[in-house]
Design brief:
By secondary structure, the protein is an alpha+beta fold. The chain is built from 9 helices and 8 strands.
């Protein structure tokens, strides 16, 4: 590949980035000024990219915008982003650091579906095999997802939940539960304080995709006696760090 070709590719990419970050539509003059390139160069490159579908021209304004080919490639990339595969190394790292059970789950209707589970050195391993479906509302993972859903979607899910107590600590009053979710949203993580199973505590944090949508949650769980005030603080920070790493690996940004 010649030096001129490499330069042309670099400039073409700069044009795509400029179209993606600036106004929805930009003229050749605007792109020329933004990128400090001659109008003739901009015109030659956008014409070539238009033929390939990477940019499109508005016939009325003669301005350019990103083309459908960009969306197609983005869709392919998103399909290639497998949550479980992306999350696994971070989950293993978290399990090794805490020596507790680490889980990854998604929300389906009112239930959690567990996608991954690690117990590196944990004395007590939680029975959360891959594919297991459990009630979401009383678990840290479920609360971490529910709290970050859009309000309308959250309300729809909550209306379907049967607030059946699992332990004496389970929150069963819908109004109290909504207030609890508001607290989770504010602090950025959820706690299961022996609400799903007696003698078991859990800390969970949400995971977001490229659009900012909450898609899953990660948690550390184990015997209640292991969650001393000092270790609770340490576990919380580690869970939050892990959720951020997975979110970033998904191409998302952390909203907490």
């Amino acid at each position: 590949m010649s030096k001129d070709t490499v330069v042309a590719v670099k400039r073409a990419l700069e044009i795509l980035i400029a179209l993606g970050q600036g106004q929805p539509q930009q003229s050749i003059s605007n792109l020329s000024e933004t990128l400090s390139l001659p109008k003739s160069t901009i015109h030659r490159l956008v014409t070539t990219m238009e033929e390939a579908g990477f940019v499109k021209q508005d016939p009325t304004t003669r301005s350019y915008a990103l083309g459908s080919r960009i969306l197609e490639l983005g869709g392919v990339m998103l399909k290639q982003l497998d949550l479980r595969t992306l999350a696994s190394p971070y989950l293993e790292e978290l399990a090794s650091a805490t020596r507790q059970t680490v889980s990854l789950a998604i929300l389906e209707e009112t239930d959690l579906i567990y996608l991954e589970n690690f117990s590196r050195g944990a004395v007590f391993q939680m029975p959360t095999q891959i594919g297991l479906r459990l009630s979401a509302f009383c678990r840290g993972l479920g609360k971490a997802i529910l709290a970050f859903l859009p309000q309308a979607q959250q309300a729809e899910v909550l209306n379907k939940i049967e607030f059946i107590p699992h332990t004496p600590k389970t929150i069963t009053d819908p109004n109290e539960y909504r207030k609890h979710l508001a607290k989770v949203l504010t602090q950025g993580y959820a706690i299961d304080d022996e609400e799903a199973a007696f003698g078991c505590k859990c800390i969970a944090a949400p995971i977001f995709d490229f659009s900012g949508k909450v898609v899953a949650a990660v948690s550390v769980s184990g015997p209640a006696q292991d969650f001393t005030p000092q270790r609770f603080s340490e576990f919380t920070q580690l869970v939050l760090d892990t959720s951020r790493k997975i979110t970033q690996a998904m191409g998302g940004s952390v909203a907490i």
